[in-house]
Amino acid sequence: MNNSNLIIYTFVVTAIWDVILRFMSLNYNKLPKIIDSFLPFIKDLKPYFENHTLLAAALIAGFVGATTQPIIIFFMSFPKNLKNYKYIFKFLILSFIISGLYGFIMKWSGLFPHLQRYYYDKLGVIRSIYHDGISGLIVQITLLFLFNIF
């Protein structure tokens, strides 16, 4: 698979996960109570999603994923051999770090005022790095899974 296709797939997967996150956030009170214990930040995103249409929020997320992926694959190519666990582990660690740090670019660019107000300001620096890193991992693991079954 070439890098252009990977970036397009990353855009789509990231946008789809954003739609799922939107659904969870806007229906937070209907989710299982365990979500409240482990993922309380989802509730805090409700005003963000209320200030964006489904398409706008998904496009922003897709853009962020698609612009983060080239940075990651500049340092380390996307895993082709899914049995090379050591390489995959290193790739996921790199993805976590770059995704976490990419949040600083988003935050400091001023291009995402609603995200700044409803996400970064509420989470603080450490938690926002962690959550951005986890978001990157979710996308990469989804891509690894999809490429493995197709």
Structural notes for this entry:
This protein has 150 residues and is mainly α. The protein has one domain. The protein has helices at residues 3-26, 33-38, 41-44, 46-50, 54-75, 85-109, 113-149. The longest helix is centred in the last third of the chain and has 37 residues, at 113-149. The model has no long low-confidence stretch (mean pLDDT 95). Keywords: Membrane, Transmembrane, Transmembrane helix. The chain crosses the membrane at residues 6-24, 53-75, 87-108, 129-149.
Describe what is shown at a glance.
The chain has 150 residues and is mainly α. 82% of the residues lie in helices and 0% in strands. The protein has one domain.
Structural class: mainly alpha
- Helices, by number, come to 7
Largest sheet: none
Low-confidence stretches: none
**What does the radius of gyration come to?**
15 Å
Number of strands: 0
Number of domains: 1
Approximate shape = globular
Please describe the topology of this protein.
Elements: H1 3-26, H2 33-38, H3 41-44, H4 46-50, H5 54-75, H6 85-109, H7 113-149
Helix pairs in contact: 1-5, 1-7, 5-6, 6-7
